[in-house]
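A favour, since you know our structure tokens better than I do. It will help me judge whether the discrete encoding reads sensibly. The space below this message is yours for that.
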Amino acid sequence: MKKAIGLGLIVGVFFALFVLFQNYLGATAFYIAAVAMAMFAVLGPFGDYLKAAIAMLVGVIVGLASMVILALYCPLPPDNLLYVAIVSGIALFLLVVLSVTGLRIDAMFLGWAAALAGLYPTYLANAASLASAIVPAAVGVTVSLMVGLALSVLVIKIAMAVNR
């Protein structure tokens, strides 16, 4: 029980520090890390966390590519809803095809959705500013997802310590 309390304290302090310093890390969407923490329920105590991390990064890359394609080759907002649907559908199809390589589709979807959540408001407000926002958003989303995944490992350790 002491181990579970100690690990729980580490998770709480680490996440609080992440939220406190999120602007310095370029990760203003700390809720993405919270969502990534939920991966512990999916991965379980013996899950392949490295494969999940790689799948999340693949999802982020596909999400970033989707936003670049929308900004460069499709009509700008507000006349772009059909194009958003087409590009999103193709991106998700690509993720499903990539899942046959053994990558986790749920982690790829999480990475893709996080990248879109980080960039879509900028795209709607001013698509031209995506050029300066894409790198900080990519870093922020990636840091958020990896922090969430690391915290999920600690949460698994807590669950295993409590259930002994």
